[in-house]
Amino acid sequence: MEGRCGEGSHTQSPSCAAVRSRKPCMDTGKHREKASSKKTEPRRATRPSSSDTRGLNGTSTEKRLRYSDCDYTPLCPLLSVAALSLCTRFYRITEPPHVCWDETHFGKMGSYYINRTFFFDVHPPLGKMLIGLAGYLTGYDGTFPFIKPGDKYEHHNYWGMRGFCAVLGSCLPPFAFLVVLELSHSTPAALITASLLIFDTGYITLSQYILLDPILMFFIMGAVLSMVKFNHQRLRPFSWSWWLWLLLTGVNLSGSLGVKFVGLFNILLVGINTAWDLWRLLGDLHLSLVDFMKHLIARMFGLIMLPLFLYTTIFAVHFVILNRSGPGDGFFSSAFQSRLIGNNLHNATMPEYLAYGSIITLKNLRIAGGYLHSHWHLYPEGVGAHQQQVTAYLHKDYNNLWLVKRPNSDDFTWNPELIRHGDIIRLEHKETTRNLHSHLHEAPLTKKHLQVTGYGINGTGDPNDLWQVEVCGGKKGDPVKVLRSKVRLLHRSTGCVLYSSGKTLPKWGWEQVEVTCSPYLKETPNSQWNIEDHVNPKLPNISLHVLKPSFLEILLESHIVMIRGNSGLKPKDNEINSKPWHWPINYQGLRFSGVNETEYRVYLLGNPVIWWLNLFSLGLFVVMVSLCCVALQRGAKLGGTKKAHCQVLMEGGGLLFLGWLLHYLPFYTMGRILYYHHYFPAMLFSSMLTGLTLDTFLQNADLLFSPAVSKYILRGGQIVLLVGILHSFYLFHPLSYGMNGPLAHDPTSSMAGLRWLDSWEF
Amino acid sequence: MQGVKLPVTVKCEINVLLIAVTVLGLLTRLYGIHIPASVVFDEVYYGQFVSLYMKRVFFIDESGPPLGHMILALGGYLGDFDGNFVWNRIGAEYTSNVPVWTLRLIPALCGSLCVPLGYLLVVELGYSHFTALGASLLLLMENSLIVQSRFMLLDSVLIFFLLLAVVSYLRFHKAPKSSLWKWLWLFLSGTSCAFAVGVKYMGLFTYLLLLGLAAVHTWHVIGDKTLCNGKVLVQVVVRFLVLVVMPALLYLGFFYVHLILLYRSGPHDQMMSSAFQASLEGGLSRITQGQPLEVAFGSQVTLRSASSKPLPCWLHSHKANYPIRYENGRGSSHQQQVTCYPFKDVNNWWIIKDPSRQSLVVSSPPRPVRHGDIIQLLHGMTSRFLNTHDVAAPMSPHSQEVTGYIDFNVSMPAQNLWRVDITNRESDRDVWKTILSEVQLIHVNTSAVLKLSGASLPDWGFRQLEVVGDKIYKGYQQSGVWNVEEHRYGKSHEQKERELELKSPTHDDISRNLTFMAKFIELQWKMLTVRNEESEHKYSSLPLEWITMDTNIAYWLHPSNNAQIHLIGNSVTWTLANLALFIYVLLFLTYLLRRRRKIEDIPEACWEQLVLAGVVCSGGWVVNYLPFFLMEKTLFLYHYLPALTFQILQIPVVVEHLYTHVLRSPSQHKAFGGVILAALCSVYFCYRIFSPLTYGQPELTSEELAALRWRDSWDILFRKR
Questions:
Q1: Residue limits of the MIR domain (chain A) (predicted)?
Q2: Which of A469, A470, A356 has its CA nearest to residue A409?
Q3: How many angstroms from the chain centroid is the CA of residue A258?
Q4: Which tens digits make up the pLDDT trace of A467-517?
Q5: C-beta atoms surrounding B16 within 10 Å
Q6: Tell me, what's the pLDDT at A237?
Q7: Distance (Å, rounded) from C-alpha B434 to C-alpha B450?
Q8: Residue A43: other Cβ atoms inside 10 A
Q9: How many helices (H) and strands (E) in chain A?
Q10: How many other CB atoms sit within 10 Å of the CB of residue A375?
Q11: pLDDT tens digits, residue range B39-91?
């Protein structure tokens, strides 16, 4: 293996020199650099603090042949990184023995998988499925209710799930080590990065609990590592390792997207990198178009088809496992619900045709549309008429029940008569006995539409309560089928149609969905309803087979429901909202457990020394890379090492910087509620960039000082960094491993004097 | 004498085409702009600001920087408008004192000049005069641009500055090296960028595009190895100064003029801080002028909350107690209510007392209150001390109740000592200053901070705002910060005298001046953070509806007949523009990929020309359109007009490219010429057909109106006879 690779790079260089093509030459140039740097590795293994002296020792071919650059990694540092990160993550992992922060959600959802109960969450299912699996394998039986943070686990087996997350969290430092090593070919840079991640209290805390973040970051780092490794294989296309890293990238991408939608940013990063790579290949005129198409198709397969397939598989598994009715039913359409064992639509029996006197619920056909709903509360003053609210509500509730009446009498004594297309009805709200009503007032949010209210007492109202039933695609005289007919309700006096706009009402409307009467009569799912529950004691119940939706329909529906749910997570008025600019400066953390002096407290907060170092390095990187670019653009003559450093900064650093931007900036445009821990994926990139930047910076001390002094500076800098990181970790470790006793303002506290910012809450 | 060439001659070249399109532009935009003589659509919004400018009354408008309003006000100034008109209803008839013609003149002029600017832009992009003529004709016959130009609205002014900035930048870029003219063009470009941003924040998008273009060009200059380092540095610095620093300074300048012009207090005063209000004539300064600066023991003060959410208010108490039991059964201390009251009132006065002395008057010399001092606050009218204790507040049970202390002899001792914490102090012995100092009042016994909870009390509290003591108060919150607004040194020893004193106004005169930068920062911050309640408007629309013009806006309807004005574009032009954009993207991608494989279909110069045209036209469309998808404010069709202008300029560019480089045989050329002619004719007919809705005359019958409703989603109004 080694020999083959060395030969490859050896034979490549004369041929590319002959055709004077620039790109491949630079690649071999880089190879040479790498090879010569590797040559010094064995020495470094014995003296870990020795500086990187690459470039100084010529480029003798025999040595290059001996030390292949392909699969060589300094094992000793890598293993110690892995061991240290496992130790820091597993230390006191069972503490505290109660539910912390979002464990209440994700632990609960893990239990749902074990119990096979259907639920709804705004994130894709992979993360929770893995948590459930980890729990199942370690003997957790899914019986712990996870009601609220602070609940004691007692005899329940929770360490398995925490341990699983910790294992994935421990993979981050070794992965980062390998990525930086690959990008910078410098072990010190990789070690700086790894120590930043190992000793950051934020990452330790986030890895120790049952959360989605360690799983998400594992896949993100996995994808980045595979991508970087894949880039490195560019000289040996279609070899087995090339395929391996390509496919691994794809697998990790589907994994990160399968845990949280934040994975999209990761896909964007890989996408940009791949596009750039393809662009380079397209410009390579030695490559025939046929070969280029091969490249293109291979990438489309590995990075699009495969992830898509895996992603859908995740959902398929999700739907197969969760086959029992549960708390998430109401978010989905009637057809979807009929799949779930225990749901009232599963093998339902009810009267087949709608008749006067029936009690029904109406479900909007818009995806995640909600049930027609009303309650005792009135529209506030200034919002149309001061009458009872009518909304659409996603949960099943007795306030969703409506009674179908004749236009003019409340008498149901005679035999039930079916309602047909074109008939005129009134709908009385069962609980409040008000009629569904509309009139010429503006709707609360959609000003172009009319307001819909509940009006009248004990079912007596006025002519504005009359609605005409229309079966979509039906003709006069067709009966209305329960569940299967799409029904529209046309208001008699104004001619508008009952409509659910999908907009969320403000607080006075309990954040339910607005219902209006639309004067635009186009047939859209917003204006179509189906009858879901149907009770009429005078009609025989018939077993109904609802058309079961296909898998693709379910997939689409659940995605739309998730996206709606995500954008619906608006910040509440009185809640202190975390802003994206807070994050890089480590402005404020999150309480994982405990508030008071008497409680066991865990506080999610990054190690401030590390975070501020990262912030500083971002600035340093921008300055350094601009200097590099301007120097190159002005055609400055740079020596071999300097040129290599420039390239590391511009290519490796550029990739990491792009990753940071892509995982950070989009949050500024998000309207949903944001939390501090959303920054941690971006922080991974920032930490890797720090390692790369600081190492390059220290190595270039000879620009200002004499070689002898700069050697000391290099070593001194590395030692100061290491000591600083270790000392700050020693100071701040109680944040992750738990604090007892008085709060930081008390001089006897373990955190006394460490509350450097007033906004930190410990 | 060698430098002078005799005879001195002036050569004059006049581009008759350019003159012709300018005249046509003026005709279409200025024709009958005084009709209708009533308020049209957003004139109702901008008009109120014009009036306020005429009256020199301060206002704050969060929708955009002040330059746009100032330009409109210039029209009012030219027409001797006195500002007396009530801008409250669209369609209201203008009274005779409103100079309708001059008010609408400036936007109309700007709108007309967009037509020749379109011509120049295409020429500067390197295309032929025929193409340029086509571009200007398309702009000329674009109904939506005409409608938007003819009224007192800002979009035409914005588009004018945007086009001017781009044209002058391109002139700068193409000019021969280092002539004076070259730098003048750059200067003009920087200035128009600043003006565009000053008219509407939206101008920022094009400004950024221009900066990006300039950055790329500068990057090429840096890479030019024939220049020495010094020259490169000069080039870079000058470009930076003119395109970045100067616009920023100009932007400040707009605010400077704005604040110079508006020196009187007005309806929006209350949104600003006391210090800002004190700088306005007749506002707060009427009350506060000549107040003693340093707050001393014995001072009589009103305390204003720094938070103006939901309303600006003053610490208040009155002769009413908290109910013994609240509706939910919780108990209270039944002591006197302390609230925050949004109106000036004699009950807002408090006296600052030294806990160690009995005196309620200011000694001479006055002993100022400093940061860290312990004080008591005595309510002027009821003589109750401000007090808080471990009883849950009425509406926010996690906070402490704040009361005026009454001793009911129920073992509830008075806890009325407060520590003064000046948050904006410079040193730790800073004196508490009227208006300027922001103060937190920290309760000595419980270390709770006096703050506004944001809730309002129910009927028993007269719906005033709740004030609480917050024990878990962290960092800096506006709701916990107070400042002294009105202030006098107390002189009367007796309660009766004191009440009289409290009711009399305070005065003397010294004015407190804020620096311009302080005012600017406060004003700009308020403009960016104050959000009016966003709600959907009847004619608001979504960005996706704009491309296909699925929406329109009814601007005006004649009070008695069917004459009406709508913002509806020229459907033919809109379709052509979309088509041109699509073809351009196709062409661009094809060329790009083929060039990468070293297959050159068109010469290098031509490719660069095509790219530049794409950056300006398609890029202009992209930057002015796509950001709206991320915005959460109410959007209207007119927000699309700047994007549309750039998109229209793409049409002739694509046409010329197709004509010269894609279609090669003479017969194809002939056929294509025919197509172009046909397209121009249909554009003209479409313009004619919709011109009754553009100019509001002549009146159409209901049938004719119905025929004009080309899309079901358009709201065209029919008057029932």
A1: 351-407, 416-472, 477-534
A2: A356
A3: 8
A4: 888 888 888 888 888 877 888 888 888 888 898 888 888 878 888 888 988
A5: 7
A6: 87
A7: 19
A8: 10
A9: 24, 16
A10: 19
A11: 998 888 899 899 999 888 888 887 889 999 999 999 999 988 888 888 888 88
**Of chain A residues 652-671, which have a CB less than 8 A from chain B?**
669, 671
Q: What 3-state class would DSSP assign to B590?
A: helix
Contact A635 B454 (CB under 8 A): no
Among B382, B481, B493, which Cα is nearest to B436's? B481
Measured over the CA atoms of residue A440, residue A444, residue A447 and residue A453, the dihedral's sign is negative
Write the ipTM: 0.74
State whether the Cα torsion B498-B504-B506-B509 is positive or negative.
negative
**pLDDT tens, residue by residue, B165-178:** 999 999 999 887 77
Residue A54 CB contacts under 8 Å (≥ 6 apart), including other chains = A33, A36, A37, A39, A40, A185, A186, A641, A644
Split at pLDDT 50, 70, 90, the class of A414 is: low
In the chain, the amino acid numbered A646 is C
- Residue B431's DSSP bridge partners are B370
Question: Which residue's entry shows tokens 């893995």?
Answer: A130
Chain B environment of A522 (Cβ under 8 Å): 712
Q: Which of A633, A637, A746 to mutate to test the interface with B (most CBs of B within 10 A)?
A: A633
- The helix (H) or strand (E) run that includes residue B588 is helix B571-596
CB B704, CB B564: distance < 8 Å:
no
Could you tell me how many helices (H) and strands (E) chain B has, helices first?
Answer: 21, 14
- The answer to whether B483 and B306 are in contact (CB under 8 A) is yes
B/e letters for A670-707, b = 16+ CB within 10 Å, e = fewer, are eeeebebbbbbbbbbbbbbbbbbbbbbbbbbbbeeeee
**DSSP letter, residue A484:** T
Using CB atoms, pick whichever of B219, B474, B593 lies closest to residue A758: B474
Q: Is A176 helix (H, G, I), strand (E, B) or coil?
A: helix
Q: How far apart are CA B42 and CA A539, in angstroms?
A: 59
Amino acid, res. B632:
E
Residue A210 near residue A131, CB atoms below 8 Å: yes
**Residue that is written with structure tokens 């027409």 in the block:** B79
- The per-residue pLDDT for range B526-578, each reduced to its tens digit, is 888 766 555 567 788 889 989 998 888 888 888 888 888 999 999 999 999 99
How far is CA B5 from each of CA B8, B11, B516, rounded to the nearest angstrom? 7, 14, 51
A420 neighbors A480 (Cβ within 8 angstroms): yes
Amino acid at A170: S
Q: How many CB atoms lie within 10 A of CB B631?
A: 11
Select from B309, B383, B305 the least CA-distant residue to B347. B383
Give the pLDDT confidence score for residue B648 in this predicted structure: 95
Interface A-B, measured as beta-carbon pairs within 8 A, has a size of 41
> Which residues of chain A does B596 touch, with a Cβ-Cβ cutoff of 8 Å?
279, 282-283
Residue keyed to tokens 């009821």: B382
CA B24 – CA B349 distance, rounded (Å): 66
The residue-averaged pLDDT of A627-649 equals 87
Q: How far apart are the first and last CA of chain A?
A: 54
Q: What is the rounded CA–CA span in Å between residue B165 and residue B253?
A: 19
Chain B residues in contact with A282 by the CB 8 A cut-off are 593, 596-597
Residues A156 and A160: their CA atoms lie apart, in Å, by 10
Q: Which residues contact B45 (CB under 8 A, 6 or more apart)?
A: B87
Dihedrals φ, ψ of A54, to 5°? -65, 155
Contact A497, A503 (CB under 8 A): no
Would you give the DSSP letter of residue A199? T
Decide: residue A373, CB within 10 A, 0-12 exposed, 13-18 middle, 19+ buried. Answer: buried
Q: Is the pTM of this model over 0.80?
A: no
Between CA A557 and CA A561, with CA A559 as vertex, the angle to 5 degrees is 70
